[in-house]
Design brief:
The complex is a heterodimer. By secondary structure, chain A is mostly helical. Helix content of chain A is about 65%, strand content about 0%. Chain A has five helices and two strands, in the order E-E-H-H-H-H-H. A two-stranded antiparallel sheet of chain A has the order 1-2. The longest helix of chain A is centred in the C-terminal third of the chain and has 29 residues. Chain A starts with 5 loop residues before the first strand and ends in an 8-residue tail after the last helix. Chain B has one domain. Chain B is mainly alpha-helical. Chain B is elongated. In chain B, helix 4 runs antiparallel to helix 6. A two-stranded antiparallel sheet of chain B has the order 1-2. Helices cover about 60% and strands about 5% of the residues of chain B. The chains are: A mainly alpha, B mainly alpha. The interface between A and B is medium-sized, with 34 and 36 residues.
């Protein structure tokens, strides 16, 4: 289920290395959650709103973990599965069909991948369900602008957690990769 | 998944997919009506707590998943806690006493575990989209309050709407995987 054997020169074949990466990632996400309400108060600078830059950085972090496209550390969760059968290639030129087949072969999830993906989402779902209660309490607070910023940050944090928890679980739990032959 | 529902001592046949789908539609229609009523009463400030309890009760009595008792087996595969004491007279009169369940009634086999995980995978993205909508609402309140004012939403009303939206998301979060399982599982075969 893991797409890459290294990231920025760091070998990720060993589980312990992947676990360090996950810890680093969550430290950054928590730092983001703490500082984002403060950044929202800052005035626009020459380079624009600091909060917008922080948000872009958070999106970049999410995309690095993968799960939603082919380039991340974890394979695309939405790749074609064995149960889905062959794709529909009607009204496509032979070149387009060849390109699409190539992309699909890189993106295909086998039975084990689908099982791991679904199991990771099951575990993540249980955590997210309870964290969502925090947002209810935050959502019902004071309508003033200060609380609105806090609320926005909390909902954003939950969104980041939802987007990255299954990938983190997979990176954390997958065993050491075998050496390529 | 169980083929029958025991409600107040009465057995209701749920082997047919159609009856399970009807149950799911009725449950969500009920939640929508309760949410609307709670919104009209006081913008879900007091009704919200009762709605969360109603969700837990619906899981306990009909859907299952988190408790032993509904149609879907407990997701964690644990059986109900039972005391060694004799059943009370009241539970016998109301016919709500149920004997110790067999292990197959709460333990998930490999196929059921796969179905459970798959249902959670599908429900996860519904929750992600719901949260994205809530985040947009929170975002508008901070950055573009004029847009909210233009459509008649004051700051107080926007907060109430965010609260109601989050409440709806929590109801969905606690019920959707079970609803997906009940909706998608085909008709059960008769035991022969």
């Amino acid at each position: 289920m893991i797409n890459k054997r290294s990231f920025l020169g760091i070998p990720l074949a060993r589980r312990s290395a992947r676990r360090w990466l996950v810890v680093g990632f969550w430290v950054l996400i928590l730092a983001f959650a703490v500082y984002f309400p403060l950044l929202l108060r800052m005035r626009p600078t020459f380079f624009g709103l600091p909060a917008n830059w922080a948000f872009q950085f958070a999106l970049l972090l999410i995309s690095l973990l993968g799960g939603h496209d082919r380039r991340g550390l974890v394979r695309d969760f939405h790749g074609r599965t064995p149960e889905e059968g062959p794709a529909d290639y009607s009204f496509m030129t032979p070149d387009d069909i060849a390109a699409r087949k190539e992309a699909e072969s890189q993106n295909r999830l086998d039975e084990r991948d689908v099982r791991l993906r679904n199991a990771a989402h099951y575990r993540a779902y249980a955590a997210v369900r309870w964290i969502a209660f925090l947002v209810v309490f935050a959502a019902m607070t004071d309508p003033s602008l200060d609380f609105a910023r806090l609320r926005q940050s909390l909902v954003l944090l939950l969104f980041l957690i939802i987007q990255t928890l299954p990938q983190s679980i997979l990176l954390w739990t997958e065993p050491d990769m075998e050496e390529p032959q | 998944m169980r083929a029958e529902l025991v409600f107040l001592g009465r057995r209701v046949d749920m082997a047919a997919q159609r009856s399970r789908r009807t149950l799911v539609v009725l449950i969500y229609a009920g939640f929508a009506a309760l949410l609307a009523w709670s919104w009209l009463a006081d913008h879900c400030r007091t009704g919200g707590v009762y709605l969360i309890f109603a969700t837990l009760l619906v899981n306990r009595l009909f859907l299952g998943g988190h408790y032993f008792g509904g149609l879907v087996k407990p997701f964690n595969g644990k059986g109900p806690r039972r005391s060694q004491a004799m059943p009370s007279e009241l539970s016998l009169v109301l016919r709500i006493y149920r004997p110790e369940p067999e292990e197959s009634e709460y333990r998930n086999d490999e196929r059921e575990l796969d179905q459970r995980n798959s249902a959670h995978y599908q429900a996860y993205y519904v929750l992600a989209v719901a949260l994205l909508v809530l985040w947009e609402l929170a975002n508008l309140q901070v950055h573009l309050p004029r847009i909210l004012a233009r459509i008649g939403l004051t700051a107080e009303l926007a907060v109430s709407l965010l609260g109601a939206g989050t409440l709806a998301a929590i109801i969905v979060a606690f019920t959707l995987p079970q609803a997906i399982l009940l909706w998608t599982e085909p008709d059960m075969e008769e035991e022969g």
